[in-house]
């Protein structure tokens, strides 16, 4: 068995997320590229590493990656690794810090193991489902993380109803981990994502005691034939009921 193969699933996820982030940073520093071209190259190089490492370490598991051609082979697997080599390609290409690397293991459709690397932060932060920090108490207006360019209408409406503040931020992983890190309380998204956008963030959030679900309260499940996942709520557990009720009370768009 390879050295990577000797690692636990959680340790493997964290190691791969960290290393893929280092690769992306090296591409950004050394390639001379910028913008879309930089994003494409960082995605490609990080994905090559992740897929090769997973095939070496867990040859019997399935893989779903944003940057690899999908096949039906994973659908018959109980264990499927779901990865996003660079989540927030735009932010990465712009030289910002609010992008992430996602490595998750879905077991029978559940987001079981996850690691989200935030390579743009000092020290190359990796948040893991097996290393849990307690949630800090808070007593203030809730902070809502929203897209830099397209804040979800539900998030805007719920924030107004709760007297909350909107905080624009880049990638889905960066926003979800900001809730884990105590930098905000609610990430409510309805603009559409794919399984690789939120499987690792959901696994990490759930492990840390946060609420993670669809915005109608349904559980998040993975390894479907159709990888589109329209909406997501990650928030402090004590706020989940209020947020879900407010969302359900919103008028249905025609």
TrEMBL record:
The keyword Lyase does not apply. Mg(2+) binds at residues 66, 84, 87, 197. Its cofactor is Mg(2+). The keyword Nucleus does not apply. One of its GO terms (biological process) is sulfate assimilation. It is an enzyme of class 3 (hydrolase). It holds the Pfam family Inositol_P. GO terms for molecular function: 3'(2'),5'-bisphosphate nucleotidase activity; metal ion binding. Its EC number is 3.1.3.7. Keywords: Hydrolase, Magnesium, Metal-binding. PANTHER family: 3'(2'),5'-BISPHOSPHATE NUCLEOTIDASE 1 (PTHR43028:SF5). This is 3'(2'),5'-bisphosphate nucleotidase. The lineage of its organism: Bacteria, Pseudomonadati, Pseudomonadota, Alphaproteobacteria, Sphingomonadales.
């Amino acid at each position: 068995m390879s050295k990577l193969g000797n690692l636990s699933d959680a340790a493997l996820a964290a190691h791969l997320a960290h290393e893929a982030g280092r690769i992306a940073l090296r591409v950004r520093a050394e390639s001379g590229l910028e913008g879309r071209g930089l994003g494409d190259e960082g995605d490609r190089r990080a994905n090559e590493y992740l897929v090769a490492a997973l095939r070496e370490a867990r040859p019997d598991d399935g893989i779903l990656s944003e940057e690899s051609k999908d096949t039906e082979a994973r659908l018959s697997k109980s264990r499927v690794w779901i990865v996003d080599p660079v989540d927030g390609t735009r932010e990465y290409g712009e030289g910002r810090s609010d992008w992430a690397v996602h490595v998750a293991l879905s077991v029978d459709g559940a987001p079981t193991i996850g690691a989200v690397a935030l390579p743009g932060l000092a020290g190359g932060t990796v948040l893991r489902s097996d290393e849990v920090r307690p949630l800090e108490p808070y007593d203030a207006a809730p902070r809502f993380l929203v897209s830099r360019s397209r804040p979800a209408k539900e998030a805007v409406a719920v924030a107004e109803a709760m007297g909350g503040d909107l905080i624009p931020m880049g990638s889905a992983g960066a926003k979800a981990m900001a809730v884990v890190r105590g930098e905000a309380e609610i990430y409510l998204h309805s603009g559409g994502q794919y399984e690789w956008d939120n499987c690792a963030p959901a696994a990490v959030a759930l492990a840390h005691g946060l609420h993670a679900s669809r915005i109608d309260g349904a559980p998040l499940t993975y390894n479907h034939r159709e990888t589109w996942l329209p909406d997501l709520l990650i928030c402090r557990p004590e706020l989940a009921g209020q947020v879900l009720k407010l969302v359900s009370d919103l008028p249905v768009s025609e």
